[in-house]
Design a protein that fits this description.
Length: 337
């Protein structure tokens, strides 16, 4: 394990991670920790006698209207909405009705240290929504997409002009587990927490975006497919294909009969009853029959049915302009990359 140029810790799969990290200690504390007995090191690290308090945790900067309860480097902060310094967020802007609860395990994450390694002075930190290790953030009025640096996606971003209440979770990994089922449900209320009416002018913002790697480049985030509608659409296309195959088989059969008649027809000579020129009577009869069968069983079915059937499939299942119909195979609300 080593400290990289930006102060972070480089970890290889072979090395894993250090159970006890002395890299961020002040020189004096580092010397003391390295020279101590195992019992002394356990006491310094806060693990002696079953004690698991944080031993190298920074101090949290609090605004005048905030209260916090913490142990080691785990804190619950009560106050107003702020993602960073005391003048940030809605709280820093003097906005009312923006109460917030910030639950953090690991302020400054791998950069956390009690004292500055160079000066030996105590380290004080503000919330940092990018670096802090694990956070559950609740706010009555917030701008979470901006605070956490999230892309717009399909549902759009929150903004200063459209603040929202939020519950935001961030960590290296997040697990949501249920022994029976999980529901992700949007827009179940008529009014937002700010008293705004939840209208239907733009329904996309009520959807659910699944965006990997925070990537919403053009063409990346697309509507999710609705399985039942897709199966129904493909079934209709298969039925139309089968019908077209039958029509073509009819045409090939009629065409073959007519061509056979053209090839084999003969005429009977008035002299001695011998065959001479082709028999135009049989040819004309088969030609008329060919024309009638082709018209009834090939031309008419294609002309009357196929344009309408194909247009119906396109409009019912594939049309996305305007408001998609109930059978459209693409979700009206939910997207993913």
């Amino acid at each position: 394990m080593a400290v990289n140029g930006s102060g972070g810790i480089e970890v290889t799969p072979q090395q894993g991670y250090a159970a006890i990290n002395n890299d961020r200690l002040s020189p004096a504390d580092k010397v003391e920790a390295e020279r101590s007995t195992p019992e002394g090191q356990a006491s310094i690290h806060g693990i002696g006698g079953g004690d698991t308090t944080g031993w190298d945790a920074p101090r949290l900067i609090l605004a005048r209207n905030e209260e916090a309860f913490g142990k080691g480097n785990a804190w619950i902060r009560f106050g107003k909405d702020r993602p960073s310094h005391v003048l940030s967020g809605n709280g820093g802007a003097g906005v009312s009705h923006c109460a917030a609860v910030d639950i953090v395990a690991g302020y400054s994450a791998w950069l956390a240290t009690k004292k500055n390694p160079k000066t030996g002075k105590n380290v004080y930190v503000d919330p940092n929504f990018e670096i802090d290790a694990a956070r559950v953030y609740l706010s009555q009025m917030s701008n979470p997409d901006k605070y956490f640096g999230l892309v717009k996606g399909n549902v759009g971003n929150t903004s200063k002009n459209r603040p929202v209440s939020t519950v935001a979770l961030k960590a290296d990994t997040i697990r949501i587990m249920a022994r029976e089922n999980i529901k992700l449900v949007t827009r179940m209320d008529a009014m937002s927490a700010q008293g705004a009416k939840m209208g239907n002018t733009f329904t996309g913002k009520y959807g659910i975006d699944l965006i990997a790697c925070n990537d919403d480049r053009p063409g990346m985030v697309q509507p999710l497919v609705k399985g039942d509608n897709l199966v129904e659409c493909l079934d209709k296309i298969i039925q139309l294909t089968e019908t077209l195959v039958t029509i073509l088989e009819n045409f090939f059969e009629y065409d073959k009969k007519f061509k056979d008649a053209v090839q084999k027809h003969t005429h009977i000579s008035p002299f001695y009853g011998t065959e001479t020129a082709p028999d135009f009577k049989a040819l004309i009869t088969e030609g008329i029959n060919h024309a009638i069968c082709t018209t009834l069983n090939v031309d008419l079915p294609i002309a009357l049915n196929f344009p309408l059937d194909l247009a119906e499939v396109r409009s019912d299942y594939l049309e996305t302009k305007g408001v998609p119909g109930p059978k459209c195979i693409l979700s009206r609300y939910n997207s993913t990359n």
